Amino acid sequence: MQTEKREIPSKFGPPKTCPECSGRGWVDNRCITPDHAHRCGYCDGKGFDAGGKECYACRGTGLIEVRQVDKNPCPVCSGAGVYPVPPSMVAADFAYKPGWGKK
Prior knowledge:
mainly beta
């Protein structure tokens, strides 16, 4: 399994746009596996149903793609959107603001 390498700015320079979240402050909760595929739960990975027909969920491959769209604070900038995070930056300045604006 290959891992993607991203260059992270030095902690000793001015803040720059976070390379992990591109300044958004959040990242999608995503699969870590390179193919993002898991065994199909409908056909138990066989690719066909009990009647011998092609599985409608995986279309005969035995695998389904799993995606999650939850937003989590960026692990590099902790939701600030810049890295390194200046000590003077307050939570109201962060790019990731879960629950703000909801009533």
